[in-house]
Design brief:
Spo22/ZIP4, Leucine-rich Repeat Variant, Spo22/ZIP4/TEX11, mainly alpha
Length: 886
């Protein structure tokens, strides 16, 4: 386990404390052989501790590198102290035993070798190793061999197999040369060295390494054949063979299980080899597993539970090409359950049951022909009926039951499907789970139950799609096929007993619920299904024997409306048109059916006022759905116009927008009491109606639309109207009339008009320009349905603009704070002045002197209002020319 940051910090502090302790002892100890030896003993132990807390170089992470470097730095500092004392000690050779000095030197250099290797400097490690007196008369070979083993293991873990072999072979050579030394634990050392060497040879895999591996294994089996580590190594070697010896593998595996003193580490190792043994013999693998289960200590319940869960895990993780005998798996599971019962384990933990159910669910996802899936089906039935799995998460069992019921349908096992669904309904609240509802519906196709099941929630869209498609297929079969097989008769019998209204509304209500929950409805097949269901519903109204209530009509209309709304919100705009058209026809057919119901029903007095009230509410609700659909139609067609290029299609959309808005206007009073239109809706309707009227050249109604919008005008609506007038092609006279109508609203509203003052000059500019253009047209325009005289009215419009501008400029000259002022642009004043004086010249040419003088004077006033040198030049120019005329 990797040390967490807090442990690393603690280790670093401990190492620094050790370094300080060595330094203090060095300072306090006398400079004589006993003092030197005392410091060296502490220094060696402290250095080992520091190097022991440091990870090998290959395991270092970025976050741990600094801490490990600090550990090695402490070790180096300690060994530097030891080096000084060792040098002093060597000067006192006559005073101490030469063998003791040699042992201390060997231990020092071996620690330096180990430190160099941990620092990632194998070259330094090799150099320092040459200084160790291995051939001397040393009595302390223990540390040399131990450090070599430690370095070899570290190199093996780091993947440095050649380096590992080198150091381990040195250790083995040193051990063999000193077997007679009593201080050595030679058997333990030999086992460690040869085992690690064998692992390194096995990793390399060369012919030479394979030969050496064989030699090491022979020695290990001869001397230490009963040791678990050697037996595990044997298993690994057998496993790596091209054609593993099955009998030998199971012999060794059985020996490990029977004699092993259990630890969690060995438990996991053995479980891994049992899983591998499934490739050699599934039956023997299960025997080994059962033997392992029986050998586990009774008090280790968590081990027993983990071992039990390995049964399904081993089966689920086998390769596809491996054929697993169902009988062997059934026996293995029964034996494992019997063992739990013998041990007095009535139920495994909740977490364990959850793991078991999860494995089974994964196995059930295997292909239908897979033996793994068939085994899972049997185990599921066993699990749901066995008390040992009672302590489980409700959701896990619920999901397993649903999956098992679904598979039962695919296996045509309707009896078991019914049993499972009955159990689900008894144990769970299933009304809000559409997957269960779909399964119940499918069961009804093969049972004598009621087919019409209300769907509230969808877990997987594919389930409801299949369900709806099958339903519609069967109803079509009922109508069109006169010569059906017995199987088809049996499948269609449950539907035959349903009313026609139920048959029409079931797919619609189920799909509407699915779309509302937004569960997997982005696929193209769902979109196509929506069209199919809507067409199916529409065709249902053509049935001559249709018996339907007002409430059923209301549900059909509402579900159709919701489906269209979902498509509009979730899919590209062009996909909404078809649904819009079909839904519109369904609503119209529903209203016609409602009228026929009213006609066919005797107009007798209801039995009580409550019935009359309910009937009236249903009627109002049905009409209100149709009323709301008109708003949806306006919104969809308005957006379609924006993306449409074809002029004919645009014309059709605008025509239908006008028709829909006209219907809304007609029905508005009927619903205004309980469902009044808000300001935003009114603005939206007016904007779409105005644009459509201009596009369709309905000139007579445009001024009315402008005037009707006066009470809820805002800046956005005002700008939209103005943009439509300026964008669409029409005669200048129409533009002048419509802009004038809008400006009149501005004048009446005054400061209450929610329009930016900066926009006024632009509106006046357009009105002035189009009014003069309409007054002096190059080609006379025949105005249709407009009670305005031409061209005098247009001169009056332009004249009113000048008067407004002059008033605005007069307010501009007042002291600040005298009220709301309009700052009029100088450029606009110049344009109006020049255009007014030019119009005066036109009147002079037409011999209308009075009008000429009036317009000329207004032009001069506008030029004076500029208050710029350019304005003064215009005033002089206008006055000079006017004096020349009169």
């Amino acid at each position: 386990m990797e040390a967490n940051p807090s442990n690393k910090d603690a280790e670093a502090i401990n190492n620094r404390v050790l370094a300080i302790a060595v330094a203090l002892l060095d300072f306090a100890s006398p400079l004589n052989p006993p003092g030197h030896i005392r410091v060296l003993d502490l220094a060696f132990e402290a250095a080992r501790v520091c190097m022991g807390t440091s990870a090998p170089p290959h395991t270092l992470t970025a976050t741990d590198e600094a801490a490990d470097t600090a550990c090695l730095d402490c070790a180096l500092k300690i060994l530097k102290v030891a080096a000084k004392r060792l040098d002093s000690l060597e000067a006192s050779v006559p005073a101490i035993d030469q063998a003791q000095l040699s042992a201390l030197s060997a231990e020092y250099y071996m620690l330096r070798v180990h430190l160099a290797w941990q620092q990632g400097r194998p070259d330094i490690a090799d150099h320092l190793f040459t200084k160790i007196p291995l051939k001397g008369a040393t009595k302390d070979h223990y540390n040399v061999i131990g450090e070599c083993i430690c370095i070899g293991r570290g190199a093996l873990e780091a993947g440095q197999y050649d380096a590992a072999i080198k150091w381990l072979e040195i250790a083995l050579e040193e051990l063999q040369e000193n077997l007679d030394y009593q201080g050595l634990d030679s058997a333990n050392f030999e086992l460690q060295i040869r085992h690690t060497l064998a692992c390194a040879y096995m990793k390399i895999g060369t012919p030479d390494a394979a030969e050496k591996l064989e030699g090491q294994i022979a020695v290990l089996k001869t001397k230490y054949g009963e040791n678990p580590a050697v037996q595990v190594l044997e298993l690994e070697i057998i496993r790596r063979e091209k054609e593993p010896n099955s009998a030998e593998f199971f012999r060794v595996l059985k020996a490990i299980i029977e004699k092993l003193d259990w630890t969690e580490e060995y438990l996991n190792v053995v479980l891994g080899y049992i899983k591998y043994s499934m490739r050699l013999s599934i039956g023997l693998a299960f025997e080994m597993h059962h033997l392992l289960l029986k050998s586990l200590p009774c008090e280790k319940r968590e081990w027993i539970e983990e071992c039990f869960l390995r049964v399904p895990w081993m089966v689920s993780s086998t390769t596809d090409e491996l054929d697993i005998p169902e009988e062997a798996c059934k026996t293995a599971m029964n034996d494992a359950l019997a063992f739990l019962e013998d041990r007095g384990i009535e139920s495994i933990s909740q977490e364990g049951t959850h793991v078991f159910f999860t494995i089974l669910l994964n196995m059930l996802e295997s292909p239908e022909t897979s033996s793994c899936r068939h085994i899972a089906e049997k185990w599921c039935q066993l699990a749901l009926d066995t008390k040992v799995f009672n302590d489980c998460f409700t959701s896990a069992k619920f999901n397993l039951q649903k999956r098992l019921a679904t598979i039962s349908f695919s296996n045509n096992d309707f009896v078991f499907a019914k049993q499972t669904l009955d159990q689900i309904v008894v144990e769970n609240e299933t009304k809000s789970d559409l997957q269960v509802q779909c399964l119940l519906f499918k069961l009804a196709l093969h049972d004598e139950k009621d087919v019409y099941l209300e769907a509230d929630r969808l877990n997987k869209s594919k389930a409801v799609i299949d369900c709806i498609l099958e339903f519609m297929d069967l109803t079509t079969l009922l109508e069109s096929s006169q010569d059906k097989s017995l199987v088809e008769e049996a499948r269609s019998d449950p539907i035959r007993s349903r009313s026609t209204a139920d048959i029409i509304s079931f797919p619609l209500s189920m799909l509407s619920s699915a779309m509302e929950k937004k569960q997997g409805v982005s696929e193209e097949n769902v979109l196509d299904l929506v069209y199919s269901v809507l067409k199916y519903t529409k065709q249902g109204f053509s049935k001559t024997d249709l018996s339907i209530s007002i409430h059923e009509l209301e549900s059909i209309c509402l579900d159709s409306y919701n489906l269209t709304l979902h498509i509009f919100n979730m899919f590209p705009l062009e996909r909404s048109e078809e649904a819009l058209q079909i839904t519109k026809e369904i609503i119209n057919l529903s209203r016609q059916r409602y009228e026929s119901i009213q006609t066919e029903t005797p107009q007798s007095v209801p039995s009580n006022s409550q019935e009359e009230k309910t009937e009236k509410q249903m009627s109002v609700q049905l009409g209100y759905i149709a009323y709301q659909f008109l708003f949806l139609e306006v919104s969809i067609r308005a957006l379609c116009v924006r993306s449409e290029i074809n002029s004919t299609s645009k014309f059709e959309h605008y025509t239908k927008i006008i028709k829909a808005i006209k219907s809304i206007r007609e029905q508005e009073s009927e619903y205004s009491e309980y469902h009044p239109l808000d300001i935003e809706t009114l603005r939206n309707l007016s904007a779409n109606e105005f644009e459509a009227a201009i596009a369709l050249e309905d000139w007579s109604g445009i001024v009315t639309i402008i005037e009707d919008s006066e009470s809820f005008f805002d800046a956005a609506l005002f700008d939209h109207f103005m943009n439509c007038i300026l964008t669409f092609e029409m005669a200048d006279a129409y533009k002048a009339i419509f802009i004038n109508a809008m400006v009149e609203i501005m004048r009446r509203a005054g400061s209450d008009m929610p329009i930016l003052l900066n926009n006024f000059p632009s509106y006046y500019h357009h009105l002035f320009t189009f009014a003069l253009a309409a007054a002096n047209p190059e080609t006379p325009t025949q105005l249709l349905d407009l009670s305005l005289h031409w061209p005098g009215e247009y001169h009056e419009m332009a004249d009113s603009v000048i008067d407004e501008v002059l008033t605005a400029t007069a307010e501009q000259s007042l002291p600040s704070g005298s009220g709301q002022q309009r700052v009029y642009p100088v450029e606009e004043l110049g344009y109006l002045a020049t255009s007014s004086f030019n119009q005066a010249m036109d009147f002079y040419s037409a011999e209308n002197d009075q009008a000429c003088l009036r317009w000329a004077r207004k032009g001069i006033l506008l030029a004076e209002a500029m208050r710029t040198p350019e304005g003064e030049e215009l005033v002089c120019l206008f006055q000079t020319r006017l004096e020349g005329l009169f």
